[in-house]
Amino acid sequence: MRNRLSELTATVQDVSVVQLGILGCGTVGAELLALLDRQGTGIQARTGLEFAVAGVAVRDVGKSRPVALADGVLTDDARSLVARPDVDVVVELIGGVEPARSLVLEALQAGKPVVTANKELLAAVGAELFSAADAAGVDLVFEAAVAGGIPLVRPLRESLAGEDVRRVMGIVNGTTNYMLTRMTEEGASYADALAEAQALGYAESDPSADVEGSDAAAKAAIIASIAFGTEVVAEDVHCEGITELTPIDIAFASRLGYVVKLLAIVERSIDGGVAQVAARVHPAMVPETHPLASVRESFNAVFVEGAAVGELMFYGRGAGGGPTASAVLGDVIDAASNLRRGSHASIGTLTRVPIRSIDDLVSEYYINLEVADRPGVLAQVADVFGRNAVSIRSMEQEGLGEGARLIFITHLACERDVRRTLSRLGELDVVRSVGSVIRVAGEDDAAGG
Ligand code: NDP
Ligand code: HSE
Predict the structure, then answer these.
(1) What is the band of 445 on the pLDDT scale with cuts at 50, 70, 90?
(2) Annotated catalytic, 219?
(3) Which is the catalytic residue, given 112, 119, 219, 261?
(4) Is the shortest distance between the CB of 388 and ligand 1 below 6 Å?
(5) Is the CB of 230 under 6 A from ligand 2?
(6) Of all protein residues, whose CA lies closest to atom 4 belonging to ligand 2?
(7) pLDDT at 5 over 90
(8) How far apart are CA 117 and CA 100, in angstroms?
(9) What is the DSSP letter of 357?
């Protein structure tokens, strides 16, 4: 690899090659360099494009790297690298909003296509960046930003451009899916499972983005934007992560025939002739028979439902350096081909439509209560459910010394009514604590509740 990368970087002055300015050489950046090294000759044979690495910007040039680069290629001056006249295509693999936003804007304004894997950036200021790309007539491509190595963005943008997409739902965070798999199947602790996901390169540099759901929410916002042609930002997405899940919930899910998964769900509907979008990320109890229940470890899976096409499923590795670098390299080739042809792909004009409140969601719910174990308690609890229009589908009781744990699964109920029920239950003397509340995906409901 050392030899091939040196050759690549040595061709930097050759005007016939496409010169890359790579920002970031962490988990994904280093794998991209390794992949360029392994695949460069084959790519050249297939596409006629030869890639050279003009420079790689990092924060700390003194850090040891798993890839060898020619002298002078590493720099800590990302801005100068972007501005270099010999850089044709910029690849942003730093993460976060700043300085990534400024660097991407500078590249686009200088007429350079940009490839990015940065979902946080796109979910925060995507509309601004897409306008800048269109104004400059160059590509801003981001296949790796959603579901890692799975081709999802391009199918949504291109293959399904004429489809009336109604709903997209799935597992889009590899870290939490890996953690939930380890916790469910091997009883691993939350802390151990997270440490393993970090060691495997799945987690964000700040893993709270994974476990608190904001990484999946950013992906949900991007998916909604391209699937529905509307501007959806991360703040529009109702977001709950896995930090409140307990081993008790995971064990009860198993006993009841479910698996707990962190789902991202975006839906488009028409209300009174007006289009609206709902977007949410939350843990859900998925029936063991549902296809999403068998999506394990860092794998992601995404269902797309369209009016004409019906249901499609995309499945593959959603995190990790190799799968993500594969998606980045595909985008690099696409952007370079378009640059050579003088064309670019546009995401089009994103309109803004009302966002439906989570309060209007209708789902089944798992509710875990700790109560006093004495006569009349169940009647009081059931009365609160009934008065607030939440119908109980099943109930299990487990003794807890002097108290008892009650596990309810409701029939379909409105989120607003469930929240009011929980609040009233919390006011009862006999209720010691209102524990986890998890939405339940229906057997036939690809929307996951
Ligand atoms: P890492 O944290 O592993 O790498 C980030 C890189 O950016 C490091 O090389 C770091 O330098 C460099 N960097 C940080 N700040 C600056 C700066 N101001 N100027 C120049 N370089 C800087 O992140 P990943 O490789 O995991 O992720 C990169 C992007 O890809 C993120 O947007 C992430 O969300 C996305 N992504 C990641 C996936 C994954 O599985 N890891 C999957 C899909 C997308 P240094 O090495 O010196 O610290
Ligand atoms: N941290 C992200 C995940 C990386 O675990 O899915 C892929 O976007």
Answers:
(1) low
(2) yes
(3) 219
(4) no
(5) no
(6) 319
(7) no
(8) 11
(9) P
24, 31 contact by CB (below 8 A): no
What predicted TM-score, i.e. pTM, was given to this entire model? 0.94
Would you tell me how many other CB atoms lie within 10 Å of the CB of residue 78? Answer: 25
Spatial separation of the C-alpha atoms in residues 69 and 54, rounded to whole Å? 11
* Span from the CA of 318 to the centroid of ligand 2 (angstroms): 6
Distances (CA, A) of 55 to 5, 6, 184, 282, 323: 12, 12, 44, 40, 23
Contact yes or no for 52/12 (Cβ under 8 A)? yes
CA distance linking residue 1 with residue 327, whole number of Å: 20
* pLDDT tens, position by position, 300-323: 999 999 999 999 999 999 999 999
Q: Looking at the CA of 213, which ligand is closest? A: 2
What's the CA gap between 235 and 422, in Å, rounded? Answer: 25
Q: What is the pLDDT, as a whole number, of residue 401?
A: 85
pLDDT tens by residue, 239-277? 999 999 999 999 999 999 999 999 999 999 998 999 999
Mention every residue, 6+ apart, whose C-beta is less than 8 A from residue 79.
99, 102, 103, 106
For 123, 204, 243, 307, 328, the CA distances from 151, given in Å and listed in that order, are 19, 20, 29, 21, 11
pLDDT of residue 443: 61
Mutate which of 146, 172, 173 for ligand 2? The one with the most ligand atoms within 8 Å of its CB, which is 173
35 Rama sector, left if φ>0, alpha if ψ -120 to 50, beta otherwise = alpha
CA–CA separation, 334 vs 129, rounded Å? 18
Ligand 2, atom 1, lies closest to the CA of 203
Cβ–ligand 2 contact at 241 (below 6 Å): no
* CA dihedral (339, 163, 122, 301) positive or negative: negative
Phi, psi (rounded to 5 degrees) for 402: -80, -15
Structure tokens at 55: 């420079």
298 Cα to the center of ligand 2, angstroms: 8
The distance of Cα 225 from the centroid of its chain, to the nearest Å, equals 13
